[in-house]
Amino acid sequence: MKPDRPTILVVDDEPKYVRALKAILNADGYETLGAYDGAEALKIAEQQELALILLDVRMPRMSGFEVCRQVRTFSTVPVVMLTAMAQKSEIVTGLEVGADDYLTKPFSTDELLSRVRAVLRRSHMQALPTRQSVFQTGDLHIHYTRGEVRLGGQQVELTPTEFRLLCELSFSAGCVVPASMLLEKVWGPGYLGDERMVQRVI
């Protein structure tokens, strides 16, 4: 695989669906890998350097929620959940186990690629508007460039979205930050008006 092309892992128990998503992503310049169950997805995530995981929620034996939960024990790779129905309970559960975004099936090619680009852009740490390399207040230390957070000397494990949200709040320490500003900075302009995204993470 070419190192200059981000690698995306597509996980779904339906081979036709995996092939279709891979074809769309390949045509847009991404390298892709496919997995058809949770165990295979975890193995690939542990062995490969991935830029993103597209993860179906409803799979036999191991759900996408459990896969995401286990991925978060060893990786901060962005995860986009693919849900068959836009049920609030599924969306909330996905975000709570560490997902960065979600897509409701069926979705268009344009929507898929737009979400993928947005998540990859947000996860790129060099894009953070850092004013300094480290933020400190009391026992809290945030190392922007390393993506590390320590509280009382202990490292705090955060998802990429949680880390970006904490960084944005630290940039405006001591001030009230409107939810609309956090949505635009952390999730992107496409989420303006959906303050629930901020509430779910906080």
Please give the structural blueprint:
Elements (H helix, E strand, L loop, with lengths): L6 E5 L3 H13 L3 E5 L2 H10 L4 E5 L7 H8 L7 E5 L4 H9 L4 E4 L4 H15 L10 E4 L2 E4 L4 E4 L2 E2 L4 H12 L7 H9 L8 H6 L1
Parallel strand pairs: 1-2, 1-3, 3-4, 4-5
Antiparallel strand pairs: 6-7, 7-8, 8-9
Helix pairs in contact: 2-3, 6-7
Q: Which features would summarize this protein structure in a list?
A:
single chain; 202 residues; alpha/beta; five-stranded parallel sheet; four-stranded antiparallel sheet; 8 helices; 9 strands; globular
Beta-strand residue percentage: 15-25%
Q: Which secondary-structure class do the elements indicate?
A: alpha/beta
Low-pLDDT regions: 125-131
Rg, Å, rounded: 17 Å
Question: What is the tally of beta strands?
Answer: 9
Please count the helical segments.
Answer: 8
Main sheet: strands, sense, barrel: 5 strands, parallel
Strand order, largest beta sheet = 2-1-3-4-5
Roughly how many Å apart are the termini?
Answer: 37 Å
The run of helices and strands is EHEHEHEHEHEEEEHHH
Write up this protein:
The chain is an alpha/beta fold and 202 residues long. Helix content is 41%, strand content 19%. The chain is built from eight helices and nine strands. It has helices at residues 15-27, 38-47, 64-71, 88-96, 109-123, 160-171, 179-187, 196-201; strands at residues 7-11, 31-35, 52-56, 79-83, 101-104, 134-137, 140-143, 148-151, 154-155. It has a five-stranded parallel sheet with strand order 2-1-3-4-5, with helices on both faces. A four-stranded antiparallel sheet has the order 6-7-8-9, with helices on one face. Helix 2 runs parallel beside helix 3. The longest helix is centred in the middle third of the chain and has 15 residues, at 109-123. The termini are far apart.
